[in-house]
Amino acid sequence: MYFFLASVRKDLRRILADLGTMTMWLGIPVVIGALMHLGMGGGGGPKPQAHLWVADEDDSLPSALLVGAASQGGDDGLVRLEQTTRAEGLAALEDGEGSALLVIPEGFGAGLLAEDPLTLELFTNPAQRILPGILEEGLRLAVDAAFYAQRLLGEPLREMVAGPPNGSSFFADAEVARISIEINDRMESLAGVLFPPVIELATHVEVEEEEVASGGFGALFLPGLIFMSLLFMCLGQSVDLWQEVGAGTLRRVATAPVSLHSFVAAKAAAGAFVMLAVVAVALGVGVALYDFPLRRAPAAAAWCVFSGLTFLFLFLALQSLATSARGGGILTTAVLFPLLMLGGSFFPFEAMPAWMQSVGRWTPNGMAVIELKRLLFGGVEPLALGGTMLAMAATAAACFFFLVRRVRDRFIGG
User: Fold this and answer.
1) Cα–Cα distance between 281 and 287 in angstroms, integer?
2) From CA 132, how far away is CA 187, in angstroms rounded?
3) Same domain, yes or no: 248 and 380
């Protein structure tokens, strides 16, 4: 035990002596978390809003109805609408202003009522992806709504637009009554479907409201950011193996009446102390800026350190496979960045393509990120958590014993 504690103190002193690296590890979650918070406008930042330019070249009642439907909610709605011309709208999009330009062609109103083929042009800003996509889906819904409105009220509406027969200025009372009765009958035929609707949507949120972080995208990103910091930290600490080789420490351990297992375990214990400090800072940022539940922080911190030790043993094992410190750095880096890309650290799973999500959720850090979010925001599944813990523990144990054997055969026996 004395040798184990002495080795832990030695490794901690070596880590803390490099203040620059230690500051970088602590600063990653603080700096990036704060930048995301400021970028989102703080805790009560503005909601995303699409800026839609509209060039109404028809200026008819149907085009006005389409424009009015797009501007529902006013300045606080999802879409902020601004009237313009085709040329000015295209110029604005080229300058990166706005999300899209909708061009309503001349003859739109008459063609819509007559069910003639029409083309609505939507030019999107290539610098944006999500907001133009929302506008495109909204336009598709408007086209579908026009189709069903034609099926329901097309004939009486066309009669009204065509005007009174025989050059009269007004419809005869009988014609007005007939058209009104026809519209009323068609609406009444849908009474059992629309009034009330046949399908009702009922939602139920099982997670308690106060336990859900309100930081939006930042809250989704920070758990992956924590593991990004841990992975970089484990990569840096794994290089310590080559420092021990250069200093001859491993050969001295081999000739002393101590266990090599204790020597390797001491490195893990020293690493766990540093990981706990970094995780505590990161979770503090989450509590302060993104409303992470404080009472869930201890379990989340324990999970981060447990997962981090698995990554540390993995990188140490990879370092032992190399023939030099340079080769070890190349090998571990080649493993690190795919894990960061797929495992929800560079981008949260919620913002990744479906195929990348399906792959990333099975990476070690991907599984760890998923369980961390459940621990922080509720919805923990005991079986899933237990299975992930078992997989992590098995991976860590395999890497630990492989590392001990590799160190004995490669760095001591050789």
Assistant:
1) 10
2) 34
3) yes
Mean pLDDT, the chain, rounded, equals 80
State which residues form the domain around 128. Answer: 50-162
pLDDT at 193: 60
In this prediction, residue 201 carries a pLDDT of 66
Clarify whether residues 250 and 332 are in a common domain.
yes
What are the CA-CA distances from residue 82 to residues 68, 91, 92, 93, 103 (Å)? 11, 14, 12, 13, 12
Number of domains in the chain: 2
Q: Read off the CATH number of the domain in which 133 is found.
A: 3.40.1710.10
Residue 413 phi/psi, 5-degree rounding, is: -65, -35
DSSP state at residue 412: I
Per-residue pLDDT band at 393 (split at 50, 70, 90): very high
- Say which residues have a Cβ less than 8 Å from residue 214's Cβ, sequence separation at least 6: 43, 290, 291
Task: Determine the residue type at 322.
Answer: A
pLDDT in tens, 330-348: 998 898 888 888 888 777 7
pLDDT band at 281 (very low <50, low <70, confident <90, very high): confident
Residue 114 identity: A
Q: Are 273 and 280 in contact (CB under 8 A)?
A: no
Contact status, residue 363 vs residue 227, Cβ threshold 8 Å: no
181 part of a folded domain: no
User: Higher pLDDT residue, 71 or 146?
Assistant: 146
Decide: 368 and 227 in contact? Cβ < 8 Å: yes
How many residues in the chain?
414
How many helices (H) and strands (E) in the chain?
A: 17, 4
Tell me how far apart the alpha carbons of residues 139 and 134 are, in angstroms, rounded to a whole number: 9
